[in-house]
Every structure is written in structure tokens, then in C-alpha cells.
Write a structure and sequence with these properties.
43% of the residues lie in helices and 12% in strands. The chain is built from 25 helices and 19 strands.
């Protein structure tokens, strides 16, 4: 054992040596990855296999790079759009891929000793949490888990659930102390406060909140109590401005760089970066060095002639950059490499930069404490705040990490600030709602006995009798829908059901179109456009351009099938409803398949470059699922293969990007 391990790491290592599963709850930056490396080393030394699951592809890619440096030629990667060395002893994959393998190819897990679930608190993600739950529920009994989580108050409850469904012990290791403590500061009315009491006394003039500028709540009802008559005293008040350049200058003077500035909008990150481009954090010598490094990376990733990369160079020369999901993946990679090499001093980024990716800084700034939560705007959850704030303070380099929140008393109550920063972190709560493909796979193996699996779920474990009845009832209603639509009979799955079992997320519309023969009529363009439309989720208020006449047959069929499915789902009261197909990217995808250079796609779409690549890669993933589906005809597989070859090129080719790193 290494004497540099912290006590909580040593406890986890002892549990791993005792062949126990381990659930580790610790703050961001506390050192959870070191525990994972110990489990990996132990398994590889025994010629056993390890699977490392991550919630997002960016984190999977980073772990692939990190572990490839430690274990050369022993690491694989599976993310749907990338398949590298998939039979390696250590395979990094998204949690969805692992869940799918449990049903599709369980034999591959025979020699797997450990499955590492990174960011396991994703169990309570409304859209994807059920994937983590299913991955744990259906893992084979010989597999041991190492589950790594951000701090959550009900970690022991989660462990109790796992103990109740698996026939082996699980050790809970909980660490609340950060190796680098955080200092919370506030910019309010143009001043910096390092004490929440002084913030209330001076920034809020002793009151909990001021009248809202928008005369409405914060999206979660938190301001309603602050709009009573007792606030008429402040109706004439206007908060003094919080100048961002003053805050940046303060951080520079206090020698608290490098800094991550979190803003909850892609456009906002770019605007802020250019506004603060007047700062220069680098000496002339350092500026020359970073530009040399930047140019080399741009050449390596074939970005030398990319307009956005050329623009970014002006900021990079000053030690500034921005980073968000709408950027080219290769340009994001360049910025990440510059940041980890300690050459970027100030980076404006969205919250995705905080999810697992190891990019610590000395200081974190919150542009505001309010964000969009999928369906509504709301103030940050405490766990979300600390997921981002935890990037402040570099272990072994900083004695403290500094976290600044920009506060306007018109926009947020003082009590809400206290709740976010000093309140108890939210518990992990089940979001269990198995998709149709999961139910088809279970029905294929167990028939009606699949209903016996619901009591093994975290949802059942956490729920009262009424919620349990609703949960079981939802599964039965989904099975009834699948039976009515011809996916299954009392004897088992139909050919339609066999096909649907491979189409995670899109099983109903694609299976309907497979059964009717419509998929057989499509060429590579029409098939790809259809898949992209099923995948695409337009941003708020985004309008679609009219699609070409020759693609209208695809749109019309997609609409007919969607309406039919929604009628049946409404009748059976199943949830969530299958989403409508959106053809916003039809023109761009057709142009790309026909050989259009990436920079020319701007003629066909106004969607961010990074989003275009992300959706093209998701189409690739779905095309691969179609190729593998047992009931797909040879003609359909051939069409899917042709489409794959034409889409997976240049900047879209994720495997090529990884091999360049």
C-alpha cells in the first residue's frame, strides 16, 4: 500500500482486497480515481477483466486516454460511435453500452471481475437514471462493483438496496472532508464579500430579498414569499452593477488564477470570453509558448484552417478561452489540453466541463445560481453547485479553493443562497422507468416472470405501497401495449419484438416501419435522415427549415407512425410518450452524405458545429444497432453500412480523433 493514500482511500482498498463491492461517496477532487486504479491494477494482475462505465462520452474518452497512458495496449473503448479494442482487459464504456451488453452478450462478462460505476449519483437523473438502476440490477453475481459518487446523504440507503439484491457484501466509504477546503465568496452590488452574514447585512440591506426585476418567481417558487407588502420599502431600489471585469481584476490581484467561469448558456460563454479579452494574463514569452502549442495542436487535429479555431487564437494569446458542447470536439480537446498544461488562465465554460472531467483550477466563478433544468428554470441544487464548485482547489498545489458567486438581490433570496451553499445535499432518488427494449429483452428471457424483477429495483426499495403499485402497474401497461402492437405473444417475442429489443430508445417507431417494409424502401440518405429526425431534440423556439420534396415521404411516414404510437400510449397510459421526429438537420445530413465539406454545412443549418457532429455520431450509433439487429434484412444492413461509410468521415470520425490524441 502507498503511504500517500488518505484514510478513506485505505479503507476502500482494504474492502477491495477482501473481495467486497465498494460504494465511495466523496467530494469532487477528493481522490476517488486512485481507488479505481487500485481495483484495476489488482484485476489486471490476475488476468481478469474490468469495465469502467462513465455517464458521458467526453468522460469516457478522457478515461480512455488516461488509462491508455498507464496500461498501454490493454485498454478498449465502447461508446456507440466508437469501438476500439473492445476485447481488451480494461474497457471504458458508457453505462448504456454496459446495460445493453447485459442483455445482448452476457457471455462477454464471464471473466469480468470489477465494474466501476463513475458518477453513480446519476441514478437520479430524470432522463437516464433508470439505465444505472438496470445496470446494477441485472449484473451477474460474480461481478464486484466499485461505485463512485459525489457526496449524497443517503449513500447507506443505496448500499442497503444493492445488498438486498446481490449475494455479496458491499462496503460504504463516506468522506465529507475535501483535501483542499473551499472558501465561498460573493460579488454583490459591486463589492466582494467573504461572509454570508455581511452579504445579507450590506448586499441585501438586512432583508432576505428585494422585489424581482421580472416581477416573477425564480422558476421554483422560491421568490413568491419575498413579494409581500413588507418589500414595498425597497420598490425604488436598484442594485449596483456587478462588473465582471472588476471581479476578474480582483482575482488576478489576489493571485487566484487559473479560474473556471461557469455560465449556463453557450452563447453567454462566448460573449463573456470576448468581453474579457482585454485582459492579458501571460507574459510575452508565455504568449509565444502557448501560441506555438496551440498551433501545433490545431495542426494535429486538422483545425489550422477552421474559422472558429482561428478566432479562438486571439483569446488564447492572452491566456483566455471558452468551452461548450456546441464547439467542434477537436477544438474542445485543444482547449482542454492547453488548460491541463496550465497555459490557460481563464476559461468560460458551461456546466458540462464539471461532469467528471479532471480539469481543476484555483478559482471557480458562478455567473448566476440559476439554470435551466430541462423543463423549467430553477435555482441550483446543492449537489449541482458542489459538482462545479469542487473544481476549485488543486490537490498538492493549493491550500484553498476559491468559489465566487455573482449575486443580484433582485434575482435571488439570501435564504436560497444559504440553502444552495450551506444546505444538506440532495438524496439520490430512483428514476426507474424501463424502456420498451429493456422489457423486450427481459420478456425474451423470463416471459411474464419479468414482473418479478421490479421488486429488485431501487424504486421499489425507496417507495411506499402506493408508489410500488404504480410502478408495477406501469410495467404491466407497457407490456400490454407491446402485446397489442405485435411485439410479443404468450409464447415469446415476435420477429418485430426481436428487432425492437436492439433499438433502445427508438424501438416503437423503427419496429413499426421495419414490420411495414418501409425501412426496406429507403436509401442511405433517407434512412439516415429518418434516424436523425428520431434522435434530434430542437432547442427552445428553434424553427425547422422546409425539407426537400424527395424527403417528404420520410417525414410523412414518421408523422403517421408517431401519431399511431402516441394514440396507443395514451390509451394504455404509458410514460414517457414517444417523442415526435424533428427534421431540422435533414438538409445538412443529406449534404454531408453526398460529400459536402464540413465548413459548407452552414448553408444548410444554423445548428452549432459541435451539435451537428454529436447528432451525426448518434446516427452512426443507431445505424450500428440496425446492422446488429437479428431481424434486419441483408438489404437493410447493407444500406446501413453504406450510410455509415459516408457519414463517419473527417471531423465526424470519433475513432480517428481519439487515435490522434
Amino acid at each position: 500500500m502507498n503511504y500517500d493514500y488518505d484514510p478513506f482511500q485505505l479503507k476502500a482498498i482494504e474492502a477491495i482486497d477482501a473481495e467486497k463491492s465498494v460504494l465511495v461517496s466523496a467530494p469532487t477532487g477528493a481522490g476517488k480515481t486512485a481507488i479505481a486504479e487500485y481495483a484495476i491494477n489488482k484485476a489486471l494482475a490476475r488476468n481478469q477483466r474490468v469495465i469502467y462505465t462513465a455517464p458521458i462520452k467526453a468522460l469516457s474518452n478522457q478515461k480512455y486516454r488516461d488509462f491508455s497512458a498507464i496500461y498501454p495496449d490493454q485498454v478498449g473503448l465502447l461508446t456507440g460511435d466508437v469501438s476500439l479494442n473492445s476485447h481488451a482487459p480494461l474497457v471504458i464504456m458508457t453505462t448504456e453500452i454496459y446495460r445493453n451488453q447485459l442483455f445482448e452478450d452476457p457471455e462477454r462478462l464471464k471473466n469480468t471481475a470489477w465494474v466501476i460505476f463513475d458518477e453513480v449519483h446519476y441514478l437520479d437523473d430524470p432522463e437516464r437514471g433508470t439505465v444505472w438502476e438496470e445496470a446494477i440490477m441485472f449484473s451477474p453475481p460474480h461481478v464486484r462493483f466499485l461505485a463512485l459518487s459525489a457526496t449524497a446523504p443517503n449513500i447507506e440507503e443505496l448500499a442497503e438496496w444493492i445488498r438486498s439484491i446481490l449475494d455479496h457484501p458491499i462496503e460504504v466509504i463516506q468522506e465529507d472532508r475535501r483535501p483542499v477546503p473551499l472558501v465561498h465568496l460573493f460579488q454583490c452590488q459591486g463589492k466582494i464579500y467573504d461572509d454570508e452574514k455581511m452579504l445579507k447585512k450590506e448586499g441585501f440591506l438586512g432583508h432576505d430579498g428585494w422585489p424581482s426585476r421580472w416581477n416573477r418567481g425564480g422558476g421554483d417558487g422560491s421568490r413568491r414569499s419575498a413579494r409581500g407588502g413588507h418589500q414595498r420599502w425597497a420598490a425604488h431600489l436598484r442594485a449596483k452593477p456587478n462588473r465582471i471585469d472588476d471581479l476578474i481584476a480582483h482575482i488576478q490581484t489576489m493571485k487566484r488564477l487559473p479560474c473556471l467561469y461557469f455560465a449556463f448558456g453557450r452563447k453567454r460563454t462566448e460573449e463573456l470570453a470576448w468581453e474579457q479579452g482585454k485582459f492579458n494574463f501571460l507574459s510575452a514569452e508565455d504568449s509565444v509558448k502557448i501560441l506555438k502549442h496551440y498551433d501545433e495542436l490545431c495542426e494535429k487535429f486538422q483545425l489550422a484552417n477552421e474559422p472558429k479555431a482561428i478566432e479562438m487564437r486571439k483569446l488564447v494569446a492572452h491566456g483566455i478561452a471558452f468551452h461548450h458542447a456546441g464547439m467542434l470536439p477537436t477544438l474542445k480537446e485543444v482547449i482542454e489540453q492547453l488548460f491541463t498544461s496550465k497555459q490557460i488562465m481563464l476559461i468560460f465554460t458551461t456546466e458540462t466541463f464539471a461532469i467528471g472531467i479532471n480539469m481543476p483550477a484555483k478559482t471557480v466563478i458562478f455567473d448566476e445560481l440559476r439554470k435551466f433544468y430541462g423543463t423549467h428554470f430553477g435555482f441550483l441544487r446543492t449537489r449541482d453547485y458542489f459538482q462545479m464548485a469542487g473544481r476549485a482547489g488543486r490537490r498538492g498545489m493549493d491550500e484553498k479553493g476559491f468559489v465566487y458567486s455573482r449575486i443580484n438581490p433582485h434575482d435571488i433570496l439570501h435564504s436560497v443562497i444559504i440553502r444552495i451553499i450551506f444546505g444538506k445535499q440532495e438524496p439520490i432518488e430512483s428514476q426507474f422507468n424501463s424502456c420498451y427494449a429493456t422489457l423486450l429483452n427481459l420478456y425474451n428471457q423470463f416471459g411474464q416472470k419479468l414482473l418479478d424483477f421490479y421488486p429488485r429495483s431501487l424504486h421499489f426499495f425507496q417507495s411506499n405501497r402506493k408508489k410500488r403499485e404504480r410502478g408495477a402497474d406501469m410495467i404491466e401497461r407497457k407490456l400490454a401495449l407491446l402485446k397489442e402492437m405485435g411485439f410479443l405473444t404468450s409464447q415469446g417475442l415476435t420477429p418485430k419484438g426481436d428487432f425492437g429489443a436492439w433499438m433502445y430508445g427508438y424501438e416503437l417507431p423503427l419496429s413499426e416501419m421495419m414490420e411495414s417494409g418501409f425501412l426496406e424502401t429507403l436509401d442511405e440518405v433517407k434512412l439516415s435522415v429518418l434516424l436523425c429526425a428520431l434522435i434530434y431534440e430542437p432547442r427552445r423556439n428553434q424553427e425547422a427549415r422546409p425539407i426537400p420534396n424527395h424527403l417528404e415521404i420520410v417525414e410523412n411516414q414518421a408523422v403517421r407512425v408517431w401519431k399511431k404510437i402516441n394514440r396507443l400510449e395514451t390509451h394504455h397510459r404509458t410514460w414517457p410518450l414517444t417523442k415526435e421526429a424533428h427534421f431540422h438537420m435533414a438538409r445538412a445530413l443529406e449534404a454531408w452524405i453526398k460529400g459536402c465539406p464540413f465548413n459548407d454545412l452552414i448553408k444548410y443549418t444554423d445548428i452549432d458545429e459541435g451539435e451537428v457532429i454529436r447528432y451525426f455520431r448518434m446516427v452512426i450509433q443507431l445505424l450500428r444497432q440496425i446492422k446488429q439487429a437479428p431481424q434486419a434484412s441483408s438489404h437493410l444492413r447493407s444500406t446501413a453500412q453504406t450510410a455509415l461509410g459516408k457519414i463517419n468521415r473527417d471531423l465526424v470520425d470519433a475513432e480517428k480523433q481519439l487515435k490522434n490524441m
